[in-house]
TrEMBL record:
The chain crosses the membrane at residues 12-33, 122-144, 179-205, 217-236, 289-311, 318-341, 353-376, 388-411. Keywords: Membrane, Transmembrane, Transmembrane helix. It comes from Nonomuraea coxensis DSM 45129. This is Uncharacterized protein. It comes from the Bacteria.
Length: 612
C-alpha cells in the first residue's frame, strides 16, 4: 500500500504507531485462528463444476462472461481456470489463496478506518468485528464463495479509501483509483456496483462537497453503465445447466416478507452480535445458521438498543443505519428475490450466511460511522455520552466470546475430510486401472455434488477425472461385450460391477437363440426405470442380439467365442425376449437383469480408502 496522509497529518506507515501495530496484530491473529478451519475444508458442490468447466474451456470471452444463476464473475472463473491447470483439486493452493485474500481484506479495511476516522484506538472495534464475526465463516469454508466475495471485500474498502482521499485532497487520481478498485470488484462480484453508491452516501453525510465532485460521479457512472448493460445482456442470454436462460421471477409478498425477516433477524443481526451460536448441518461439510428463538429476540433487542443509543448521541447515526438497511435490501435481498427464493424457499435462503458474508465489511464501516467521529468532522455529537461512554465494552466482549463459540461450533464437524477422502480415493483407483478399463460413469454421492443441481457435472468423470488424465473408458450406459466393467463403491474405490436384481440361470446347456424371438421369464420383474441386462453367450462367429423387455428394445453386438454382452433398457416387464439380427445363432447361458452396483465381495482398488 502506498503511503498516504490521514487528516491528522500522520503517514499510513509510521514506526511506533500503537493503533497501527495493534491492528496489524489483530489481522495476523485472526489469520492464524481461521487457518485452522480453512485447512480442514475441501472443494464442495459447485467447486467441482467450476474446476471442470475451467479445464474444458479455453480462456475465452464466452467462458469468462457466462452468468451462473445471476452471478457474473469472470475474475472467479479465471481463478478456477488457472487452479485446474495448477494441479486440479489442489486444495493446498486454494487454502493459501484464501488466507492471502483474507489478509488483504483485513489490511484494506484497516487502511480505510485509519483514513476515514484517523488513527484513534476506537477504530479497532469495527476492525475487530469484521475479523471475528461468524457472518463470514460459512463462506470462508466454500471455495466458490471465497473466489467471489473476498476480492470484493478488498475492493470495497480500497475504493472507499481512494474516494475519501479524493474528496479531501481534490486530486482526481484518487477518483481514478476508486473507479479502478470498483471495476476490480465487479470482475468478481455482482454487489460491487454498490460501491459508488456507498461512496455517494458517505460524501453526502460525512465528507461534504458532493456538488463539486461532478467529474468524479461522471467517472463512476462511466464504470457502472457499461457493466450494467453487459450484465443484463449476459444474464438474459446465458444458457444454464437446465438448458434455459436465467429465470427472473418475483415471489409472493408473503414469501418475500418471510425471507427478508428471516435473513434479517435470524442471520444478519445475530451474527453481528456473535451468533448464530447453533448451526443446522447441510451434509458433513457445510451448515446454515440455526439461531435459537430466544437468542434471536435477544439479539434484536440489543440491536434496537444500540441503534437508539447511537441516534441519541451521534449526529447522522440514523443515516449510517439507513445505509446498512438499504444495502441489505438492495444488495443482499434483491438478488435472492429475483429467482433463487423460488428454488430454496424462505427458510433455507433466510439462514444461508454466504448471502451475507461480504456484508460484514459494510457492517463494520456502519458501526464506525454510527459511533466514531469522522476525521475533521465538526460537531459530531448531539449530546455527551456520560455513563454510556463505556457501554460498548461489555457488548464487544460478549460479541467476541459468542463469535469464538459460534465458529468453534461450526468447525465441530468433518468439514471437507470425508469428501476429500472420497475424491482422492477415486483418483487413486483410476491411476491403478489398466488403460482401456471400462468404468461406469455414475453420479458421485450427494455429499460430494448434488446431481439434482449439477447434472452431468455430478458424474465421476467430471468430478474425479475432469482433465481426462486417466486412460480408462468411461461409459454411461452398458452396451455391448465387456469383460469386467468397474464401478465406484460408496467410499470411492473401484470394484467389479454386478447387477442387483434377478438371475435367469443357465440350464444344463446353453440355449440357442436365432432369428425367432426366444422368451425368458424374469423371476422378480423390475418395477421400471433403467434396467441393465447381462447375457453370457457362446458364439461361433460375431452376431447382433436384439433385447426386448415389454415395449423397450435395443440391439447389442455379441462377439465370437465365449463372452458377456450388456444391454440397457428403460422399463421393466415379467419376461425378457432375445433374437439375433442379420442371421446367425447365439447360444445363451446365464442372464441377469437389474441395476448396476459394486460387487462388495470382490477386491477393491485401492484396498483401503485414502484417509486424511
Amino acid at each position: 500500500m502506498e503511503s498516504v496522509a490521514t487528516a491528522g497529518g500522520r503517514p499510513w506507515l509510521r514506526g511506533g504507531d500503537a493503533v497501527l501495530a495493534a491492528g496489524l496484530v489483530m489481522v495476523a491473529v485472526q489469520l492464524v485462528w481461521k487457518a485452522g478451519l480453512v485447512n480442514r475444508t475441501y472443494f464442495r458442490q459447485d467447486d467441482f463444476m467450476f474446476l471442470a468447466r475451467g479445464l474444458e474451456n479455453g480462456f475465452t470471452w464466452d467462458y469468462l462472461m457466462r452468468v451462473d444463476y445471476g452471478h457474473l464473475m469472470p475474475g472467479a472463473f479465471a481463478i478456477h481456470w488457472a487452479l485446474g491447470r495448477l494441479g486440479g483439486h489442489n486444495d493446498v493452493l486454494a487454502h493459501v489463496l484464501t488466507l492471502g485474500l483474507q489478509a488483504a481484506a483485513g489490511l484494506a479495511l484497516l487502511r480505510l478506518l485509519r483514513v476515514l476516522f484517523g488513527p484513534r484506538p476506537a477504530i479497532l472495534v469495527p476492525l475487530g468485528f469484521a475479523l471475528v464475526t461468524p457472518m463470514t465463516i460459512s463462506g470462508l469454508s466454500w471455495w466458490a464463495v471465497v473466489a467471489e466475495t473476498l476480492p470484493f471485500q478488498i475492493a470495497l474498502p480500497m475504493a472507499l479509501t481512494s474516494h475519501v482521499l479524493c474528496v479531501r485532497t481534490g486530486r482526481f487520481r484518487h477518483a481514478v483509483a476508486a473507479a479502478a478498485w470498483t471495476a476490480f470488484g465487479m470482475v468478481f462480484f455482482v454487489k460491487a456496483p454498490f460501491i459508488p453508491v456507498l461512496a455517494f452516501v458517505l460524501t453526502l453525510g460525512w465528507l461534504g462537497g458532493a456538488r463539486r465532485l461532478l467529474r468524479v460521479w461522471a467517472l463512476y457512472l462511466a464504470v457502472l453503465v457499461p457493466y450494467a448493460v453487459l450484465f443484463l445482456h449476459q444474464l438474459l442470454t446465458t444458457v444454464q445447466l437446465t438448458r434455459q436462460t436465467s429465470p427472473i421471477s418475483l415471489p409472493s409478498a408473503e414469501v418475500a416478507a418471510k425471507s427478508v425477516w428471516t435473513l434479517l433477524t435470524g442471520s444478519l443481526i445475530p451474527t453481528s452480535l456473535g451468533g448464530p451460536w447453533r448451526w443446522q448441518p447441510i451434509g458433513e461439510d457445510y451448515a446454515l445458521a440455526a439461531t435459537p428463538a430466544p437468542l434471536m429476540w435477544a439479539s434484536l433487542a440489543v440491536a434496537v438498543a444500540a441503534v437508539a443509543v447511537s441516534v441519541r448521541l451521534r449526529r447522522r447515526a440514523w443515516l449510517a443505519w439507513a445505509t446498512l438497511l438499504g444495502y441489505f435490501l438492495l444488495a443482499d435481498v434483491a438478488p435472492i428475490m429475483l429467482g433463487r427464493i423460488e428454488l430454496l424457499g424462505p427458510d433455507l435462503s433466510g439462514y444461508e450466511l454466504r448471502y451475507l458474508s461480504s456484508t460484514a465489511v459494510v457492517v463494520a464501516i456502519v458501526i464506525g460511522l454510527a459511533f466514531i467521529p469522522v476525521a475533521g468532522e465538526r460537531r459530531p455529537w448531539l449530546r455527551p455520552a456520560g455513563r454510556l461512554r463505556l457501554a460498548w465494552a461489555p457488548v464487544a466482549a460478549v460479541m467476541a466470546v459468542g463469535s469464538v463459540w459460534s465458529v468453534a461450533a461450526y468447525a465441530d464437524r468433518p468439514l471437507g475430510r470425508n469428501v476429500k477422502s472420497y475424491v482422492e480415493t477415486a483418483e487413486a483407483a483410476l491411476a491403478r486401472m489398466p488403460a482401456g478399463t471400462v468404468v461406469l460413469d455414475t453420479y458421485v454421492p450427494e455429499k460430494v455434488t448434488f446431481p439434482l443441481f449439477f447434472y452431468d457435472y455430478a458424474r465421476h468423470s467430471k468430478v474425479v477425472d475432469p482433465a481426462a488424465r486417466h486412460h480408462v473408458t468411461w461409459t454411461r450406459r452398458l452396451a455391448g461385450p465387456m469383460s469386467v466393467p468397474r464401478i465406484f463403491d460408496a467410499r470411492g474405490r473401484l470394484r467389479p460391477l454386478r447387477l442387483a436384481g434377478s438371475t435367469i440361470p443357465a440350464g444344463a446347456a446353453c440355449r440357442p437363440v436365432g432369428a425367432a424371438e426366444v422368451r425368458f421369464p424374469v423371476p422378480a420383474p423390475p418395477a421400471g426405470g433403467e434396467q441393465v441386462v447381462q447375457i453370457s453367450y457362446l458364439n461361433g462367429e460375431a452376431t447382433t442380439l436384439e433385447v426386448r423387455m415389454g415395449l423397450a428394445r435395443t440391439s447389442v453386438p455379441a462377439g465370437a467365442n465365449l463372452g458377456i454382452t450388456y444391454a440397457t433398457l428403460d422399463g421393466g416387464a415379467p419376461e425378457l425376449a432375445l433374437r439375433t439380427v442379420g442371421g446367425g445363432t447365439t447360444c445363451v447361458g446365464e442372464i441377469r437383469v437389474g441395476v448396476p452396483a459394486a460387487d462388495e465381495t470382490a477386491a477393491a482398488v485401492p484396498p483401503q480408502p485414502v484417509e486424511r
